[in-house]
Amino acid sequence: MQFGNKLATLLSEKKKEIASLSDKKTKMSTNGNTTDTSDSRTTAAMTEPRRLRGLKATATSCIASLHRPGLVAAADEEGYVCWFDLRCKDVLTTMDVGNNNPITSLCFKPGNEDIIYASTGNEVKCFDVHMAASWKQLESYNYNKDEINQIACHSKSSFLAAADDSGDVKIIDMQQQCLYKTLRAGHESICSSVQFLHWRPWEVITGGLDSKLVMWDFSKGCRNKILDFGLPDAGSRDGTGQLLNPAFIHALVVPQLDMVDKLGKICVVARGDGVVSVINTESELAAFKSKKSSKPKKGTKSTSKGSVSSAEAQSQDKNNRRLHLDYSVGGHTAAVSCVTFSMFGEKGKFILSGGNDKSVKVWDWSKFVDAGQISSCNDLLTLNINMSKKVNWLCTTPSDSENVVVCDTSKLVKVYTVG
C-alpha cells in the first residue's frame, strides 16, 4: 500500500539520508541493548535515545505502523499530530487536529493503516493518510458527552469504542456512521481505557479510576463481569501494592488475534498503585459463571448437582492465575500510566510498561507463559530504562532496532532499541 502524494514526495526527497542513518541505527542497536545478564533486574547502559522533534507541546500519545516498519504517529496537548519515518531525519508532516485541544488517543483502522482516528475533547476525528497534503477530515463523531480518554477499533468489524470522563463508553458503527450502543453504569468514575476482546466478537473490556475492570457484551449493553482491583484479594499477589496509592486503572492492552495462541486470552492492566496486572479473561468469566450457576435458587435446596458446580468453581479458581508485577519484583514505584506488548522479534514476548516513576520496564512475559509458575515472576524483569520525565504513553514497532517509542511529559518523542 503506497503513501499519499505528499508523503511519497517527502520520502523520495530523503532517500539520500537513509543510507547514512542506517549506519547510525546499527550502532545504536549494538549499544542500546547493553545489559548485565547476570542480574535480570538491571538498568540498561544505553546510549542516549533518538529524539523526534515536531510536536508543539507535551506528547500525549503515539502509535506505530505494523505493516510499514518505522512509520510512527505522535500527538500532543495542543492538538497536533506528527508523522515520522524513522528511516529519515525530520518529521514528514504535521497536522493541527485538535485546534488547541489535546489529542488524547490515536488508532489505526484495522486492515487499512492509511486511515487514522484521533480523539480530542468529546470528538473522534478520522483522516486519510493518502490526503496528507490537505489532511482533509473524512468524518467525525460527537456522541460522547465528556472528554474521551481512549479510542479503540474492533479488529474484525466496523466498530469503534470511545471511553470518556463520565464513565460511559460509546460503541460507534463506522460503516453506518452512527451510534450503535452506549455502555453505562459500569464505572462510578472516569473510564480511562477500553479494548475490544478480539477473540469474542461482541465483547469489550474497560478500566476506570474506580479501580474496576469491566467486561461487557456490547451487543446487549450489559456487563458480564466486574473485577475490583481495590479489593485486597484482587489487588496483588501478597497485598504488596503501594497502599498509599489507589489501584486506579490507567491503561489496558490485549493481544492481537495472531498472538492469542501463544499468550492466551489475557488482558494487561496498568494500575495507579504501581502494579502491572495480567489476568486471563476466559478464566475470569468461567469462574464467575460457575459461581453464579452454583448458587441455589430462592426457595430450593442445594442439590448434589449444585455441589458439583461448586467443586468446578473451586477448580477454576485454582487455575485462574493472576500475575501481579509490583515493586517487590523490580516493578514501578509510582503509578503505571501505560502498557503494551512488543511487536518486534517474537510478537508478545515482552510486556512494556511506563510510569510516573520516570521509567520504562521491559518484562519477559514469555517466561511466565512457559513456566506457568507464579514464583518465576522474580525473573521476569529484563530491562529498566530510566527516563528524565514521567511517561505518558509508549508503543513498539516491528523493527529490530529503534523499536520502542516513548512519549513523556516533554514535546520530544524518545526512541530506544530493545531486543
Automatic annotation (TrEMBL):
Biased composition (Basic residues): 290-300
InterPro entries linked: WD40/YVTN_repeat-like_dom_sf (IPR015943), WD40_repeat_dom_sf (IPR036322), WD40_rpt (IPR001680)
Pfam families named among the record's database cross-references: WD40
WD repeats: 329-364
Compositional bias (Low complexity): 28-46, 301-310
SMART domains xrefs: WD40
Keyword Mitochondrion: no
Positions of region (Disordered): 21-46, 290-318
Record keywords: WD repeat
Ubl conjugation recorded as keyword: no
SUPFAM superfamilies membership: WD40 repeat-like
Entry protein name: Transducin/WD40 repeat-like superfamily protein
Native source species: Forsythia ovata
Taxonomic lineage of the native organism: Eukaryota, Viridiplantae, Streptophyta, Embryophyta, Tracheophyta
